[in-house]
Amino acid sequence: MLRWARERSGVDPDALAHRFVHLDAWECGDEKPTLKQLEQFAKATHTPIGYLFLPEPPVERVPIPDFRTAENRRIDRPSPDLLETVYICQQRQEWYADYAKSMRDTPLRFVGSATLNSNIEATAGAIRSALGFDLEERRQCPTWTEALRRFIEQADTVGALVMVSGVVGSNNRRKLDPDEFRGFALSDSLAPLVFINGADTKAAQMFTLAHELAHLWLGQTALSDTAPITEPTNRTEIWCNRVAAELLVPLTVMRAEYQRGADLRTELDRLARRFKVSTLVILRRIHDAGGLTRVQLWDAYRAELARLRAMPRGTGGDFYLTQAARVGKRFARAIVGSTLEGQTLHRDAFRLLGFSKLSTFRELGHSLGVA
């Protein structure tokens, strides 16, 4: 069980061995840890301590439909970081659904309004219309961050709980891995939720949000790791990818904007600025418009992905703006207001928000305009 917990955690083995100098002896059975040492080990490996007393490792599964694949094979072992992120989002969704019922909110019409047989262009148009996702407005946004912020605001306005975080809860030492998952959707007629892995690039997060919104339009809960260029085998993922691409970059507009014969690097940068999406999305749409063969697309994609990964990432930012983004402004406003009205216990609010100080709670309320 100790070996299983160590491997499951993904924590650097050398770091664990340095912290627990008798770990090898514990795993071999030559020595036994004290209860206090076991508690410390469980915390270090993000393992519920009760698991360590089981006769054999449990089979852990993501509690929602999992469409992630690696080389066309399903990914069987989820990390503790992924599991805890899904669990906390499910708890937030459950709280908000109960809150919405207490406020006599009506079910959201867009949830489940499409099927896999729905026309791609029509569905993308319906999402664009519901959100007010105007291409020209997005074009005028000065930065990727501003374009993404506006996209999230639009989704929030129609009733979706959009949560963006690159860490587990509020633990900045537990970074989420975008190679494990990019996002997920939890469908519900009163509390539809989208989680975006904030460790991914801003431009990539645009595609993830569009993809997960397509899941909500289907009324389907799902965990995804799809990117613009991937070739999922699942019919649902194929459909959501196509809707996301059409939502972000309508093919008719792309064909009109794309300059055939121009330098690809120049076109990628120009069109990415035009549509405020990742250059990877632009590559996909150039291919869809007939500008690249499949082989050329993959060659260009690998080179562009390597370039993007080598670019420096920004850090920092205002804590309260970051906290509101992590839990979603719609959710944050609701739970702060409910707590101040005495409908929700501070203990429960702190647990769902991910902090423990009353002063932090009050400042978050002030930053959101909730008195």
* Tally of separate helices: 18
The shape, in one word, is: globular
H and E order? HHHHEEHHHHEEEEEHEHHHHHHHHH
Termini gap: 49 Å
Q: What proportion strand? A: 5-15%
Strand order of the largest sheet: 3-7-6-8
For the sheet with most strands, the description reads: 4 strands, mixed
- Rg over C-alpha atoms, rounded to the nearest angstrom: 22 Å
Mean pLDDT: 90
How many runs of DSSP E, i.e. beta strands? 8
Spans of at least 5 consecutive residues with low confidence: none
Broad structural category = alpha+beta
Describe this structure in words.
- With 371 residues, this protein is of the alpha+beta class.
- The protein folds into four domains: 2-53; 79-248, no CATH class; 249-311, no CATH class; 319-367, no CATH class.
- It has helices spanning 2-9, 13-19, 23-28, 35-44, 80-102, 120-131, 135-140, 144-157, 202-218, 235-248, 251-257, 264-275, 279-288, 294-309, 319-327, 329-340, 346-353, 358-367; strands at 69-70, 73-74, 161-165, 167-168, 171-175, 183-186, 193-197, 222-224.
- The longest helix has 23 residues, at 80-102.
- The N and C termini lie far apart (49 Å).
